Amino acid sequence: MSNRTFTMIKPDATSKGYTGGILDQIVQAGFTIRAMKWTRLTAEQAGRFYAVHSERPFYGELVNFMSSGPIVAAILEKDNAVADFRQLIGATNPAQAAEGTIRKKYAASVGENAVHGSDSDENAAIEGSFFFSGLEIF
Ligand code: CMP
Asked: What pTM was estimated for this model as a whole?
């Protein structure tokens, strides 16, 4: 079934000039872009986006990092989008990511790991609507 996931290209990757390479790998893997924007989160917005992690020891570091520079937010469509995208990006920790995955190629550490991918259809819908109105999704 064709469905959707949500991604962000994170500040480490945008600042190193990896945006084009990452988007190309996503499109080459069969994902269609249904919404996309280049933007920057405030610390308050990053805190709300990652509120589910607010009790974790890395939360402050995560919020600081995610508000430290521009990101690309996008909604992507493909059969089995959530699971296939998580396979394409690889493990959260790039040291454990499979060869050829986006995080293996572009990520530096578990904190600065180049891309985000939703972990469920439900969260994909919530995260997509955090960034995009109905008028911005095609
Ligand atoms: P992401 O897929 O965006 O979802 C939550 C993020 O928290 C995750 O990617 C990592 O960037 C970050 N994260 C997870 N574990 C750690 C950790 N141990 N230290 C720092 N950041 C982490």
From this structure: 0.96
